[in-house]
Fold this protein.
Amino acid sequence: MKDIFKALNDDTRREILELLKKQDLTAGEIADNFNISKPSISHHLDILQRADLITGEKKGQFIHYSINTTILDDVFTWLLTLKK
Amino acid sequence: MKDIFKALNDDTRREILELLKKQDLTAGEIADNFNISKPSISHHLDILQRADLITGEKKGQFIHYSINTTILDDVFTWLLTLKK
DNA sequence: AAGTTATTTAGATATTTGTCTAAATACTTA
DNA sequence: TAAGTATTTAGACAAATATCTAAATAACTT
């Protein structure tokens, strides 16, 4: 839960999730959407992956990233308890 | 939105919300629940208030804090768009 | 095998964040 | 008005974070 909120607490990472919502993308394709170096994007992908919000699958020399929204259910549940 | 995710990205602040969910509390009563100095709690309350997650109303020398869950709807909406 | 491409890892740096103590503000009470 | 209580503001500091460049790893191509 801690990791999820941490992962969501960044504009770039939230944008990455919005991109991956539309379609799977490689690390490079994701990086092309930002004015940030590739190592920095790689770092963001790592944080998202640790939070289980995305998964990466290596295909040849590319890594294809996909969003994993099931983990968001935990967030929904926690937020709902606040709303009584 | 940015402010909300920032506010939620901290154990202490999430616990404060859980306390305020049960009942309104003064700043001092909130502080009594943590091993953290009062100024630090005051800082957390400020961050929660800036995110509109809580409101504070002064009554005499006390400030009574209440949770505001309506703002969470924005988070729900954003999270739901990710789930397609 | 050598060069190119895709991505990550390592190390450095500036900014942000959470915490503290001390001081300030505001209200209450004697 | 003076002393006490509740809370915040100010300033300092250590830890965490986002970013960068340079180097390493891995796979493809010729």
Notes: The mean pLDDT of chain B is 97.
